[in-house]
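Retro notes, item 3 of 5
We never archived the inputs for the nicotinamide-adenine-dinucleotide complex last cycle. Fixing that now. Sequence and ligand:
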Amino acid sequence: MKYRVGIVGCGNIFPMHAAPVRDLDCCELVAVCDSKPELAQQRAREFNCRAYTDYRQMIEAEQLEVIHICTPHFEHAPMAIYAAEHGVHILCEKPMSIDYADAVEMVKTARQNGVTLGVIFQNRYNPGSVLIKSALDSGMLGKVFSGKLSVTWNRSDDYYQKSDWKGTWDKEGGGVIIDQAIHTLDLMRWFVGGELEYVDASIANRAHTTIEVEDSAEGVIKFKNGILTAFFAINYYTTDAPIELELHCQKGTATLVGEKATISFNDGRTLIADKNPNEVFHYGEQKQYWGVSHVKQIENFYGTLQKNTQPDITGEEALETQKMICAIYDSGKLGKRILF
Ligand SMILES: NC(=O)c1ccc[n+]([C@@H]2O[C@H](COP(=O)([O-])OP(=O)(O)OC[C@H]3O[C@@H](n4cnc5c(N)ncnc54)[C@H](O)[C@@H]3O)[C@@H](O)[C@H]2O)c1
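Structure as it came back at the time:
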């Protein structure tokens, strides 16, 4: 039996979902949907399936079993909730939602209807991330004392002007934090583990002229296990510099620069993991290194669906990251510490 799969949202991230679904034996991409009819038709021709402009119609007419949500942030929650109510499993792009309460509703509705909800945080599958996580979980690094991360990327006014939803509070729900730094903040939370104790942050638009949302943010996230982590994020740098994340631990230091992890133990040993040059993402004529981790997460999603178990990154798991992201905004807007 093959899962009948549909994808809503045929923009930038679409190929990272469509190509893996096409290539997996257990799935059939039966339809795609975009509110722009020409785009939906173009993608449908490319993937030899049917085109829709209304995702509700696609769900019903195609009797979908799984939907991938690749639309602007403000649409994730209503689409996921509708799909869950119609018995459809969901794989949703990051972030889950704009508001934390909506993300809670997504998880609740999926649970009530017995469907699986997965959320994309593909960077957890990068070899460097896997090395750090396993070194922490196995105890090789001992206790984590503290952590810090920085994301300094480029999303220019031009970039924002090409989009009809980015740069707005109501549709994107924020700027550098909810869209770009979310990946590295999620990695930090995954590495450090545990629940949040408080978030104390500031956000500002310091260098853009055409957007409402923040292009800079900094602050501290304290976890209930006592670990303090600091973050710094801007998207007015002139290039996408490699992200940097560092964990100071009892038995050494773990650093992630871009995708490359280096673990330097206090006794002089070093462990390194980076992208595997043999792992490439195939899309049309292109071969590229970006996209491989999407394939891995999508394989995990369908593999666990077949076994009737839960994927690595469930709605529940992603909810804590959503809580952290929303708390950064609340703290920044209110100018006070958010305690949990
Ligand atoms: N995981 C990653 O690394 C990564 C990278 C890029 C984007 N994303 C995420 O993917 C999502 C989409 O981002 P994007 O860059 O592809 O955006 P995009 O603007 O390129 O594409 C979104 C598409 O959704 C369509 N759409 C909007 N409302 C719709 C509706 N109601 N019904 C049907 N179609 C609708 C738009 O017409 C557009 O074609 C976002 O959540 C974004 O954060 C994730």
